[in-house]
Known about the structure:
By secondary structure, the protein is mainly beta. Helices cover 8% and strands 22% of the residues.
Amino acid sequence: MVSNKTCCVPGCSKSAASKFGVPQNMMSIWENIIGCPLNRNSRVCANHFKPSDITSTWESGNGSSQISICLRKPRLKSGVIPINNLSYKVNDINQVSLGNSIDI
């Protein structure tokens, strides 16, 4: 079993400081994309996500009354999938069965 301190993506040697758990409702999709079995302890490092997939601040309000707070721990936006630095080319992602469309 892979430790939650290391990235579970095969061949990943960078393992960014931020690692994210696999959302239960996305487990089979992430398994197909990453190409290995995952479990509730699996972690995927930030190197495999687009920067826009990761939220590091919490914001509230609008205009001059808007406040922004840095989160201690970055979070993934809902519904995102790892697509960067995988063992296949991004063009091959069309061959992966996702069950829904994705924005690359």
